[in-house]
Design brief:
Structural class: mainly alpha
Largest sheet: 2 strands, antiparallel
Helix content: 25-40%
Number of strands: 2
Amino acid sequence: MRQDVNLTSLDWEDMELNVLKLHKKVTVVTLLERGQLSQRQIAKLSGVNRRTVKAIAGELGRTGSNCTTPSTGPGETAQPCPPSPPVAASVCEPYRAFIEAQLRLRRNATAI
């Protein structure tokens, strides 16, 4: 038997909704903008899920991790990580012209 629920009689204040509270979002945004902590550290510090921190960072246009080393004392700024090494060339690079020609003929990867 199904009992109908009168939505007007529910106390919305007592219900837990799956929405991030404004003060927590502001905290995450502030920490992301400072750029001194990684997303994982921000999640641990603020008590917000890592995926939520990543989503907020995506909204701000900051994808990936904030690669900085934490400062060791007051007044010191964080130093950025060294640049990543160049990506190695593909093994298929010598055959690029042939592969592109076959793709223009609408052949799939298995047929090529």
